[in-house]
């Protein structure tokens, strides 16, 4: 059976735009160290033609021909590979991890028949990243960007700072930098909503998944996310960010959103809690 016709355990998708090999090297090395990742799909949204020359049977190159956004890029990979894998990994190009970390996350998902899982995430300097979140209100997303002192106060609840991150638990939303999902679930969801060019598409995906499955945090697998906060440095990215947030709330509701309230209340009632001073 050829590599392209077999059923893979995990297909990992990475969307590139003006990325160099050096920027992607740690991510590729991490993924290639995991036997469960049997195919890595590099989707070139522009400026990464070098990826077509990588000589590795586990790496495939797809070109969109133009930059149609983060979600569109991953959807392009899904169209080619969802029918060929059990799980599909949505992965940023700024991720790295030690050998065995993804294997543990995959076995947790497969053995427990979980359809949507996310690992513990740290920044490059070792700080814990609060990647598990409630569904956002307009205040959560706008204040944290334009009034960070006020936003930081809201983040304590929004980012579940008091959750016990030594345990696995269910949450309404997780960071889109590293999502391991059952391929059939992604088919049901039709992937990302391509109306979001960049930003908020991960929140939207989580929200659409909630009626179909739990989204689970798994503490015993850890990855590192470089996380450059591009919209804080680039006016163009800031504009994309604002447009996406507006699109999100236009779709789901700004101030009257019963589903958001119920999902967040359920999460706050069921997650394990710990002292805010306890080590993560």
TrEMBL record:
Q: What is this protein called?
A: Glycosyl transferase
Q: Which PANTHER family match?
A: GLYCOSYL TRANSFERASE, RHAMNOSYLTRANSFERASE WBBL
Keyword Transferase tagged: yes
An example Gene Ontology molecular-function term: transferase activity
At the highest ranks, the source species' classification is:
Bacteria, Pseudomonadati, Pseudomonadota, Gammaproteobacteria, Enterobacterales
Look up the domain of life of the source: Bacteria
Q: Keywords in alphabetical order, please.
A: Transferase
Q: Where is the Glycosyltransferase 2-like domain?
A: 14-135
Recorded source organism is Serratia oryzae
Give one Pfam hit by family name: Glycos_transf_2
């Amino acid at each position: 059976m050829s590599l392209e016709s077999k059923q893979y355990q995990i297909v990992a998708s990475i969307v590139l735009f003006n990325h160099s090999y050096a920027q992607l090297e740690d991510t590729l090395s991490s993924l290639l160290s995991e036997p469960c990742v049997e195919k890595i799909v590099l989707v070139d949204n522009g400026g990464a033609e070098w990826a077509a020359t990588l000589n590795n049977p586990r790496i495939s190159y797809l070109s969109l021909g133009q930059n149609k956004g983060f979600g569109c890029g991953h959807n392009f990979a899904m169209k080619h590979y969802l029918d060929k894998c059990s799980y599909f990994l949505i992965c940023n190009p700024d991720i790295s991890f030690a050998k065995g970390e993804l294997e543990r996350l995959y076995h947790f998902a497969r053995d427990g028949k979980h359809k949507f899982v996310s690992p513990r995430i740290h920044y490059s300097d070792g700080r814990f990243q609060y990647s598990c979140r409630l569904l956002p209100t307009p205040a959560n997303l706008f204040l944290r960007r334009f009034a960070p002192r006020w936003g930081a106060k809201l983040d304590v609840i929004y980012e579940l700072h008091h959750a016990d991150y030594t345990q696995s638990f269910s949450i309404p939303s997780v960071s889109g930098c590293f999502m391991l999902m059952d391929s059939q679930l992604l088919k049901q969801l039709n992937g990302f909503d391509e109306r979001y060019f960049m930003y908020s598409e991960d929140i939207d995906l989580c929200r659409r998944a909630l009626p179909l499955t739990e989204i689970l945090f798994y503490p015993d697998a850890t990855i590192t996310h470089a996380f450059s906060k591009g919209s804080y440095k680039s006016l163009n990215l800031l504009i994309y960010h604002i447009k996406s947030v507006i699109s999100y709330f236009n779709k789901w509701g700004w101030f009257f959103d019963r589903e958001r309230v119920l999902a967040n209340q359920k999460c706050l009632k069921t997650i394990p809690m710990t002292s805010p001073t306890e080590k993560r």
